[in-house]
Specification:
This protein is an alpha+beta fold and 421 residues long. Helix content is 57%, strand content 15%. A hairpin with a 2-residue loop joins β1 and β2. α5 packs antiparallel against α6, α7 packs parallel to α8 and α8 runs antiparallel to α9.
Length: 421
């Protein structure tokens, strides 16, 4: 395309530019006049030798045809006597002519007297034709040259892309694909680079998930080892006491607590991997906030009071805003919140429960103090991880703010907006 455009430009530039110079030369050099004078002299000799009159159209046409003359007229006193282009003879005094200023008329003596002659042989046409041919040849040469150069450039670019793709194919996704120009090859290169970036992002995400899972498993192993060690210790004490004939109820209760803790940890781990494997769970139909999560928050308040907490719901406000939830996930989230509050919450402080409304989302927040400062960091936080994962599956997110004295959990639900509104 570039070669064709350049070729056409060269043809037009050479032809039109040289045409102007050629016309200027013909106009001011006297070339036309010299050629016409020579032809008029030849006509005069022909007329004299053959005693031809101005109206002898047969002999005059024969002479003009032999010399490839294009225009040939004879006139007397503004009246046409002969015209080479007419098939029939001109009757004397029948056609009046208007002499054009740019035409040169010459006097020739015929057998029947003097007459004015105009001759145009097209002396310049051969030069115009030659100029056109040269311009076309130059334009075609430039077009072919640019085309060949472009092909070589494209081949070099394709070879470069092949080398870069070979590097990417062995796993080096950090190697970018070179994008040059704005043609089909560059569009292909852009598509390859986009694919590389997505694969790289996917690889990084998989690495992050793998690291997070390894960290989680390591933390859970540590959390399980601690109660298991305690359980084994208590069982050894009970075994020894049994041999001595005295079994302490205290150690039986402690062993039972450790068993319950181990079960709770294993349940949370199962829940985490169960949620992660069910990424296509369907959300319920859009409902107002009060209908979607109202009952679950009421259940949360009731269970908190049963566990010895006081719930402060002065900022719990219901508005006609639509959200979508998965009821199974909401139930699991409430259970995880209760479990965390029972383990780390301060029963001397009220549990603040409220809702913040914004244009695109709502935020349900739960805030309480921490009974034993710094105690939360001893665990893996598997319960909060599960909450974060379930919120993500529902299109929302969760945030936790934890310091030595305060625990705040925020649940963000996207506002459902009906199509066309």
């Amino acid at each position: 395309m570039r070669g064709l455009a350049a070729g056409i430009f060269i043809i037009l530039f050479l032809y039109l530019g040289s045409l102007n110079l050629l016309q200027h030369y013909f106009c001011f050099s006297g070339y036309f006049r010299d050629e016409e004078v020579n032809r008029i002299k030849e006509l005069q000799r022909y007329v004299a030798d053959n005693r031809i009159s101005a109206a002898d159209s047969r002999k005059l046409k024969k002479w003009a045809k032999e010399r490839n003359i294009l225009e040939f007229t004879i006139s007397r006193e503004e009246w046409l006597v002969f015209n080479f282009s007419y098939t029939e003879e001109v009757s004397p005094g029948s056609i009046e002519i208007n002499r054009q200023g740019w035409k040169s008329y010459y006097t020739v003596i015929f057998q029947d007297g003097k007459a004015d002659v105009y001759i145009y042989e097209g002396y310049d046409k051969k030069y115009y034709y030659a100029l056109f041919v040269v311009s076309v040849i130059a334009g075609v040469a430039v077009c072919i040259g640019i085309f060949i150069f472009g092909i070589r450039e494209d081949i070099t670019y394709i070879q470069q892309l092949k080398k870069e793709i070979d590097i990417i194919s062995v796993g080096n996704l950090d190697k970018s694909v070179t994008i040059k120009g704005n043609d089909e090859i560059s569009q292909l290169a852009y598509g390859l680079d986009q694919m590389r970036q997505k694969l790289n992002e996917k690889k990084q995400l998989e690495n992050e998930l793998r690291t997070a899972q390894e960290k989680l498993v390591l933390g859970m192993s540590h959390d399980l080892r601690t109660p298991l060690t305690g359980l084994i210790t208590y069982m050894e004490i009970l075994k020894k006491q049994e041999q001595e004939g005295r079994a302490s109820r205290e150690y039986i209760d402690k062993a039972y607590d450790k068993i319950f803790l181990i079960k709770n940890l294993s349940d949370q781990m199962f829940e985490y991997f169960f949620i992660d494997s069910h990424k296509e769970d369907i959300l319920e139909a859009p409902e107002e906030v009060s209908s979607a999560i109202g009952d679950y928050l009421s259940e949360l308040c009731a269970m908190l009071e049963y566990s010895g907490f006081l719930a402060d719901i002065q900022y719990l406000e219901w508005r006609p805003v639509l959200i979508q939830v998965n009821i199974d996930y909401i139930g699991r989230i409430i259970n995880n919140i209760i479990s965390n509050l029972e383990k780390y919450g301060d029963k001397k402080q009220d549990v603040q429960i409220g809702i913040i409304y914004r244009q695109d989302w709502i935020c349900v927040y739960i805030e309480n103090g921490i009974a034993v400062p710094g105690s939360y960091v001893e665990g893996t936080g598997i319960g909060l991880r599960n909450i974060a994962l379930m919120m993500k599956q529902m299109g929302g997110k969760s945030e936790k703010q934890i310091n030595e004295k305060t625990f705040v959990l925020k649940l963000y639900f996207p506002v459902y907006k009906e199509t066309g509104k």
